[in-house]
Amino acid sequence: LKEENASLRSKINKLQIFSETQADKLRKLERKLEENKIKEEKEAQDLEAMVQHVEQNLQLMTKRAVKAENNATKLKQENALLQVQLKNYKTENEVLRSGQSASLAAVKQNADLALRNLLTVLTNSRSSIKQLVSGAESLQLVADLLKSIDRISEVSEDGQ
To answer: Which family is it part of (predicted)?
Structure first.
C-alpha cells in the first residue's frame, strides 16, 4: 500500500508539474495573443491613417489637375486670340508696306510684340499641359495604390 501511495504521489507530482507547465504555456500564449491583438489594432490604425493621407493627397492632386486644366484652357484661348491678332498685324503690315513705308517700323514693332506675346503664351501653355499630364499620372498612381490597399484588406480578412 505504501508503494502504491508513493507511486500515486509520484504520478500526482508529475501531473502537477505537467499542469503547471501547461498553465505557463497557456499564460504565454494568452500574452502573445494579446500582443498580436494590440499589434493588429496598431496596424489597422496605421493603415487607416495611410488611407486618409492618400485620400487627402488625391483631393489635393485633383484640385491641382483641375487648376492646371483650367489654366491650359485659358492659355489656349489666349493663344487663339494672339494668333488672330498676329494675323491682323501681318495683314496690316502688308497694307502698310504697299501704301505707307513711314509706318512700317511701327507695324513691325507691333508684329514683333505680338510674336513675343504669342511665344510666351505657347511656352506657358506647354508648361501647363505638362503639369496636367503629370497630375493625371499622379492620380493614376494613387488609384493603383488604393486598388492594392483593397487587395491587402481582402487578403487580411481571408487570413483571419
So the answer is: Belongs to the ENTR1 family.
User: What pTM was estimated for this model as a whole?
Assistant: 0.41
Q: In angstroms, rounded to a whole number, what is the distance separating the alpha carbons of residues 5 and 25?
A: 30
pLDDT recorded at residue 153 = 66
Query: Which pLDDT score is estimated for 135?
Result: 81
Q: For residue 101, which phi and psi values (nearest 5 degrees)?
A: -75, -20
Cβ–Cβ < 8 Å for 54, 145: yes
Cβ of 145: how many Cβ atoms within 10 Å? 15
Contact 118, 147 (CB under 8 A): no
Residues 6+ apart with CB under 8 A from 143: none
Task: Please tell me what DSSP assigns to residue 101.
Answer: S
